[in-house]
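Appendix B. Chain record.
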Amino acid sequence: MSRHDDRAADQLRPLSFSVGIAPHAAGSVLISTGNTKVICSAMIEQSVPRWMKEQQVPGGWITAEYSMLPYSTQTRKQRDIARGKLDGRTVEIQRLIGRSLRAVIDLDLLGPRTVWVDCDVLQADGGTRTASITGACVAVVLACKSLVAAKVLPRLPVKKYVAAVSAGIVGGVPLLDLDYEEDRGASVDLNVVLTEDGQFVEVQGSGEEATFSDAEFSALLEVSRKGIARLIAAQKEIAEQIA
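Structure tokens predicted for this chain:
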């Protein structure tokens, strides 16, 4: 089948990173994947959560907040604060971003400090959670580089890079990096989080009023691996430009 934007089945949407988008953050980036745009920032607090102090847990912590700005979708999205609580999707995504980053950062080397990661969706066209993880990794790497540059840390506490991508079966065909139109028509939807050495952090998959076979699952993982390898290459290229 042909895709509406003429991409190949295993082709990512156009990808770009703009660093330094939030000058008061220790590291920040605007990630654009097609028409999905997310600002990811990392700020460093010189303390750890109370539960870590009470339980005498060594090292540092990384936590994330995620939000879709009211104008990120075609119809205004109400702010969570206006409802008085976070919706379930927001909580799930925040936890996913945090888990993904903690999997690749040496928290002992980070020391007794917290890295706060904020992912704010400016424009949503599918794949906001995966774009947030991919962009947040760059923001955290840049924040950690600032600690090394300031001689707060002896070396970079980044064990490896991590990125995420969506995939799905649309019209019987496994496709990589779905936009909203494709995601809406997908019979199977998958979000994959992988490290640069191909290790899984998380796989979220479900059939939309459909089931899927081992072969279909394997095909989705194959295109996801290819896509994430390209994402991580792009992450490294942009991060290594910053001293």
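Further analysis of this model is presented in Appendix C.
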